[in-house]
């Protein structure tokens, strides 16, 4: 989301929605309503460890990935590390760059997911769709489960990748599909045993690293680069081991400015003359737009982006163009 | 030309074309090629006197208008003040907010105008049109004059106001019309005698002020508010007392961003992705435009303007909207 986010300053480290808290701080706040801070763990890349530590001063457990190996090594490492401290632990994994509104609905979904996880299932929170989006993967839910503490829990039939528009429409109409937001809740023991069975080398790697952090730099680069969905969620779903609870809270991963516009609204100080769209200045300066419609204007201290909602997805080409022009300070 | 120019910082005080010199400095530089600095006089409003003095450190004659009374009182005051020092003087008046390229052609036109003025005519430099613009008034030239030193001087038949498009087309096709850039060259004695005849009260006012500057504040508000064109140029033309020399240099009053774009070109640092137009950041930051065509983006330290070349004329509505919103700091 250039110019708001940069390589060294990704979406989760910035106050992207103008709330006064960065997305990782919002995630922290949300979880602090459910568990004490000393039970929150963060896994992040080396480039962002310092910023995370600054933004979350009460954080006690920070796992720093030497390099990106996708989500299964990250979650697996945390699971193994927590498991070593508490073999009875139930963990939930949550991305730090999502925007969620509705604390009560979020808490209810997590509590239901914990109940399902306690029964030995791997639970996820499926976001109740608000439109036939083609930007997200979907979760197909099956039979109701009668797990105490989770009145809404259902088995997962299957995970499906981002659909085309017609398929998405069909998913919504069926009422059986929810958006996959990558939120997984499970016993560490259950996750690690699935991992041992499905990705044994990866399992052994994260368990070794958790037991002896001095092995991190040597072992980490050897871990299979794979997403948690592909590594365990999809195969377990086919075996009947996955459950889903509906997430009825408002959720967005703000993948582009069209989404951000919907979420945040324009700076009230913007002057629109025969014009409309979304405008935001992070440096409290004034934007004026004359004679353009559905336009997106973003101003930061060192850059201005001008585009349209329709072209918002192509903004990702800007950092590439800057890189090509050797202006890496702006990437 | 908001946000580049502001009420307290008009076009002539800023480096609008990215040349490194403000427009009044460029005007100064141009005249310094023709006459010594001690013979340059500046008439300006009280709000801009300090900035003028800073920008033109070698300026020796600064006349500060207590309030705006249009161009005839301003030029008349300067003429009377110079006449008091040198009754033989020939003066030329030039706006400080025009962009001119072609120093040799400008010098030649001024020299020819001085020759015409020396013969007792009031001379003007008519800009040779490059297109049938409806943004300028026109000068219709008549018979060739055979004044020594002005091989191209012609009598002026009439001055005409800004025409409609069809009329402008006709003017261009006829070859008899040039743009009125408000550049007048005349003996002070000739100008003052025309003024005494055509606007006697105004004449007496400026002569009194020139003789006794302590009368300025009392007399200035009583002076007729009138443009030099209407006060003397048009009536004198009908009497056969006006002459014109062709100004073949490149000239623009950069009335809008479309004109500025043509003159200046975009910042080379701008990233265009499926986009084109004109972009300039006065604070050396980076602008990126995605999916918009013929767009104009101007960034200053405290504002951003986004418009299109087509809508450039409507930018003047922005200061009004800011004023209405009580954000006078930006006006």
Structure description:
The structure is a homodimer of 331-residue chains. Chain A is α/β, with parallel strands linked by helices. The first copy, chain A, folds into two domains: 18-252, Spore Coat Polysaccharide Biosynthesis Protein SpsA, Chain A, CATH 3.90.550; 264-330, no CATH class. Chain A has helices spanning 23-32, 49-55, 71-85, 103-118, 165-174, 188-198, 200-211, 216-219, 228-238, 257-264, 317-324, and strands at residues 41-45, 61-65, 90-93, 99-101, 122-127, 138-144, 154-160, 177-187, 242-247, 250-252, 271-273, 277-281, 286-290, 295-300, 303-308. In chain A, the strands form five sheets. A five-stranded mixed barrel of chain A has the order 5-8-6-7-9, surrounded by four helices. The first copy, chain A, has a three-stranded mixed sheet with strand order 12-14-15, covered by helices on one side. In chain A, strands 1-2 form a two-stranded parallel ribbon. The longest helix of chain A has 16 residues, at 103-118. Chain A is globular. The mean pLDDT of chain A is 93. Strand 15 (303-308) of chain A pairs parallel with strand 13 of chain B, so a sheet runs across the interface.
């Amino acid at each position: 989301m250039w110019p708001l986010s940069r390589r060294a300053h990704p979406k989760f480290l910035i106050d992207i929605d103008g709330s006064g808290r960065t997305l990782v701080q919002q995630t922290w706040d949300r979880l602090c309503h459910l568990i004490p801070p000393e039970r929150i763990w963060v896994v992040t890349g080396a480039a962002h460890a310092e910023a995370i530590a600054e933004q979350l001063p009460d954080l006690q457990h920070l796992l720093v990935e030497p390099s990106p190996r996708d989500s299964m090594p990250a979650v697996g490492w945390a699971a193994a590390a927590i498991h070593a401290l508490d073999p009875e632990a139930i963990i939930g994994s949550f991305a730090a760059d999502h925007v969620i509104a509705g604390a009560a609905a979020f808490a209810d979904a997590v509590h239901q997911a914990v109940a399902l996880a306690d029964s030995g299932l791997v639970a996820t929170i499926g976001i109740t769709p608000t439109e036939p989006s083609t930007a997200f993967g979907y979760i197909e839910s099956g039979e109701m489960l009668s797990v105490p503490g989770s009145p809404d829990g259902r088995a997962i039939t299957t995970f499906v990748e981002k659909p085309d528009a017609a398929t998405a429409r069909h998913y919504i109409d069926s009422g059986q599909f929810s958006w996959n937001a990558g939120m997984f809740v499970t016993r560490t023991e259950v996750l690690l045993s699935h991992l041992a069975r499905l990705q044994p080398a990866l399992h052994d790697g994260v368990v070794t690293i958790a037991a002896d952090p001095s092995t991190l730099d040597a072992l980490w680069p050897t871990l299979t680069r794979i997403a948690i969905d592909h590594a365990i969620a999809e195969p377990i779903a086919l075996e009947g081991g996955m459950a889903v609870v509906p997430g009825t809270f408002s959720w967005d991963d703000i993948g582009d400015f069209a989404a951000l516009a919907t979420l945040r609204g324009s700076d009230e100080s913007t002057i629109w003359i025969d014009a409309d769209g979304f405008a935001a200045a992070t440096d409290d300066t004034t934007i004026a737009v004359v004679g353009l419609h559905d336009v997106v204007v973003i101003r930061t201290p060192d850059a201005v982006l001008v585009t349209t909602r329709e072209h918002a997805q192509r903004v990702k080409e800007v950092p590439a163009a800057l890189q090509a022009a050797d202006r890496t300070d702006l990437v």
